[in-house]
Specification:
This protein has one domain: Nuclear Transport Factor 2, Chain: A. By secondary structure, it is of the alpha+beta class. The two termini are about 25 Å apart. A hairpin with a 2-residue loop joins strand 4 and strand 5. The protein has 1 helix and 6 strands. The longest helix has 15 residues. Strands 1, 2, 3, 4, 5 and 6 form a 6-stranded antiparallel beta sheet that branches. The model has no long low-confidence stretch (mean pLDDT about 85). It is flat, with a radius of gyration of 15 Å.
Length: about 100
């Protein structure tokens, strides 16, 4: 299980290493995304992941990603906030 209150990953090497570990542990991922809210300096998008299998256990995560951009449009800050439940749960009606 991943913790929200961990040290941030900084730099390309740390981010790639984190992705390698996570992608290796996960399978059967289904992602759904809401309509992004976009501004010149940032964006936010709601997401719902279902049918997530991590280390043999089904999980469901729903949350929001917040992005901040520099003047050239590159991401300079990326934050995720989520709720996590055991088992596979489909999004609620009208999600």
């Amino acid at each position: 299980m991943r913790l929200a209150f961990r040290e941030p990953r900084r730099g390309t090497d740390e981010i790639r290493g984190n992705l390698r570990v996570n992608f290796k542990a996960e399978s059967g991922v289904t992602c759904r995304f809401g309509e992004p809210i976009v501004a010149a300096s940032g964006a936010a998008v709601e997401w719902w992941w279902a049918s997530w299998i991590e280390d043999g256990a089904e999980l469901t995560m729903a949350g929001v990603t917040l992005l901040q951009f520099d003047s050239e449009g590159r991401v300079i800050d990326h934050r995720d906030y989520w709720n996590q439940e055991k088992d596979c749960r489909e999004p609620y009606a009208d999600w």
